[in-house]
């Protein structure tokens, strides 16, 4: 199943919007980076967008590949940095055919809910070298009382962080309209569903709820 053209078009439009200093994804960049064990020869980001996390990976990797189906987002990534060890590739990750054991670190931020989750997780496992790390930050569908409590706490925290970091509350009218339209295509898994798949495919993965409607998944591939 390929990424629908409507989603790619949405992110082409997102690329035209003025980027914010702080958002729900880059809030967790440092947390993700802390889970990378040592330096990396080769790193991959699936759905790299404007390349913000690729630039972090480039400081800890010899080579970085950032994949995204939105050409406009990759144009932004190229303008933001010309780091010689980052290669941005405009393609649908479902079309990627990397060799097994190609990467020391594979990352996906707010992209997995657009992809065939199980198939993508299995690909990531095959592409990862022994001793390497898979890092996922994504959105989930609230189901339990705990989920809804996290959501309730996130609302006032979002207002406070937006004021502190972006000097405004919430989104601009243009952003709100675009994301409202985009949300019609979103299909989120529950934490229970994510745990079930991870237990089967990535045994021992650490999955944690996070504020701002996110969860993190960290998995280290043990040496053979």
Average per-residue pLDDT, rounded, comes to 91
Helix content: 25-40%
> Strand order across the biggest sheet?
3-2-1-4-5-7-6
For the secondary structure, the number of strands is: 7
Radius of gyration: 17 Å
Major sheet size, sense and barrel closure: 7 strands, mixed
Low-confidence stretches: none
SSE pattern, N- to C-terminal: HHEHEHEEHEHHHEE
Question: What are the main properties of this structure?
Answer:
single chain; 224 residues; alpha/beta; 8 helices
Walkthrough of the structure:
This protein has helices spanning 5-14, 29-34, 52-58, 71-80, 117-127, 145-166, 173-182, 191-201; strands spanning 40-46, 61-68, 86-90, 103-109, 128-139, 206-210, 214-220. By secondary structure, it is an alpha/beta fold. α5 (117-127) links the parallel β4 and β5 (128-139). α1 runs antiparallel to α7.
Write a concise synopsis of the structure shown.
The chain is built from eight helices and seven strands; from the N terminus they run ααβαβαββαβαααββ. It has 224 residues and is an alpha/beta fold. Helix 1 (5-14) packs antiparallel against helix 7.
List the helices and strands and how they pair.
Elements: H1 5-14, H2 29-34, E1 40-46, H3 52-58, E2 61-68, H4 71-80, E3 86-90, E4 103-109, H5 117-127, E5 128-139, H6 145-166, H7 173-182, H8 191-201, E6 206-210, E7 214-220
Parallel strand pairs: 1-2, 1-4, 2-3, 4-5
Antiparallel strand pairs: 5-7, 6-7
Helix pairs in contact: 1-7
């Amino acid at each position: 199943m390929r990424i629908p053209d409507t989603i790619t078009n949405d992110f082409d439009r997102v690329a035209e919007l003025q980027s914010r200093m702080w958002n729900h994804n880059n809030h967790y960049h440092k947390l993700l980076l802390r889970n990378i064990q040592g330096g990396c020869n080769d790193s991959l980001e699936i759905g790299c967008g404007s390349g913000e996390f690729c630039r972090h990976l480039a400081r800890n990797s010899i080579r970085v590949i950032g994949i995204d189906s939105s050409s406009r987002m990759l144009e932004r990534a190229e303008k933001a940095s010309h780091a010689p060890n980052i290669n941005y590739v405009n393609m649908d990750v479902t079309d990627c055919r990397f060799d097994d054991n190609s990467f020391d670190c594979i990352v996906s931020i707010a992209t997995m809910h657009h992809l065939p989750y199980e198939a993508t997780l299995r690909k990531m496992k095959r592409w990862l070298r022994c001793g390497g790390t898979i890092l996922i930050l994504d959105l989930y569908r609230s189901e339990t009382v705990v989920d809804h409590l996290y959501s309730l706490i996130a609302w006032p925290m979002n207002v406070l962080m937006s004021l502190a970091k972006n000097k405004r509350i919430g989104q601009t009218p243009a952003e709100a309209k675009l994301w409202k339209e985009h949300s019609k295509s979103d299909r989120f898994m529950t934490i229970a569903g994510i745990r079930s798949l991870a237990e089967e495919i990535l045994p021992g993965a650490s999955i944690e709820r996070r504020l701002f409607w996110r969860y993190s998944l960290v998995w280290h591939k043990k040496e053979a």
